Amino acid sequence: MTTKNIFFSFTHRLSVGAAVALMALALGGCAGQEGRKELTTGSIPKLSKPVQSMNATELAAAAENIGQAYERDPKNREAGLNYANLLRMTGRNEQALAVMQQVAINHPTDREVLGAYGKAQAAAGQLEQALQTIGRAQTPDRPDWKLKSAEGAVLDQLGRASEARTRYREALDLQPNEPTILSNLGMSYLLTKDLKTAETYLRSAADQPGAGSSVRQNLALAVGLQGRFQEAETVARQELTPEQAEANVAYLRSMLSQKGAWTELAKADDGNTN
């Protein structure tokens, strides 16, 4: 199993309460934590609690509730954005993309809509299309750091690490010390097996004010992949409910115990800075 496959296997399986997916961090709309921001209100039904504290069952119920509002008024911008966001958070990426296609048709020049559409495309595996959509949303005279970071995440998915890191650093120029950007930059190095550099950026991200659970879960992964399992578990348990923490730690143990995966990562070149 390659390092990239290990990473995406982990992010696919990790409990929804503290997802560490690179795409969720980079493209969520920032993305409190990207991908878990408060839903826009107005005509949208109010939720019983913030989405970042919901478990999988509660997120599914929230998606159904918001989905009914979207069905009543499919041209409603906020309903579409919120519904697509919840669909992505529950792993329904193809449906989220279909929703965002309709929202983009109705709001073709809206930067937030285009950014969310690019996120949905990337989550559904349409990476080249996502780059084009995010590029349309960006404006040279008023560059958006979220879109810069989003573009970096897609480039990392395409294996274009050098270009991705350039975008992250451009994003940091616009928003210094933003934890989600630092986390994405760290995960970029993790994908190329430079675990020490990855940890440096992820630890910096976790130390920033406003760093959320998903940033800390990324740090836990980088620490665990270096064999410091107890430290990784301690980090993974922070700011989560006991149930979420146990689910994350259990899978972290399972994934890191795979002999082939660990052997490959243990042989990674400490000086690798691709």
From TrEMBL:
MF annotations from Gene Ontology: identical protein binding
InterPro entries with a match to the protein in the record: TPR-4, TPR-like_helical_dom_sf, TPR_rpt, UCP035836
UniProt protein name: Flp pilus assembly protein TadD, contains TPR repeat
Organism of this sequence: Sinorhizobium americanum
